[in-house]
Amino acid sequence: MQRSISTEVKDGRSGRRRCAGQRRAASSAIRNAAALVCVAALAACGSGEQAAPPAPAPPVEEAPAPAPAPAPPVDEAPAPAPPREVDFSGGDAARGEAVYLANCASCHGPRGEGDGPVAATLDPRPANHADGTRMNALSDDYLAGVILHGGPSVGKSPMMAPFAGVLDEGQVADVVAYIRTLADPPYRP
Q1: CATH number for the 93-182 domain, one of 3.30.420.40, 3.40.605.10, 1.10.10.200, 1.10.760.10?
Q2: DSSP of 72-132, one letter per residue?
């Protein structure tokens, strides 16, 4: 039985067919788009073969930390100072105190007890210039050598900096004279 267009329009079957056809076309377009997205995603991931894991880095061999230099035993006699042409025994203690307070007290303390504000940060701690038992055994030349050339010049700590470029020999002689006033028991030449 053949139906007329007017009959199809009246009962709405043509609209259903058209709707169903559009749905099939849209569904097909969605499937095609999804397939295209999947293909693009696979292409972006590479060929599908797994890449070999990177080779492990060779072990880094660290050089062992150098051993700290052993501190000289307390009972050991200090190394002799290098020979000097200057006589450091004739300094002025009053002038030496001003130089000492300006240049030495930050580590050794104002009374030379090794307790200046910087002392706590130093290892080893600064020498105690008030320890007469130790200091009185040291010559003026030895003390001047430490002041001028630093601790390493006599086998002591490199934390004791050289003052050769800061103080002249007269000032060093004055500082040595002041250090001698700090000793307990008192220094006797």
Answers
A1: 1.10.760.10
A2: PPTTSPPPPPPP-SS--TT--HHHHHHHHHHHTHHHH-TTSSS--TTGGG-SSPPP-TTBH
Kindly report the pTM of this predicted structure.
Answer: 0.56
Domain residue limits, the chain = 5-43, 93-182
CB of 182 within 8 A of CB of 111? yes
Q: What are phi and psi of 184, to 5 degrees?
A: -135, 110
Q: Is 10 helix (H, G, I), strand (E, B) or coil?
A: helix
* Contact assessment for residue 177 and residue 96, using Cβ atoms and an 8 Å cutoff: yes
**140 phi and psi, to 5 degrees?**
-60, -40
Phi, psi of 131 (to 5 degrees): -80, 90
CA 76 to chain centre: 34
Question: Can you tell me which residue has the tokens 């042409």?
Answer: 85
Instruction: Write out the two tokens for 106.
Output: 């930050």
> 37 phi and psi, to 5 degrees?
-65, -40
Cβ proximity of 171 and 99 under 8 Å: yes
pLDDT tens, 37-79?
Answer: 544 444 444 444 555 566 666 666 666 666 666 655 655 555 6
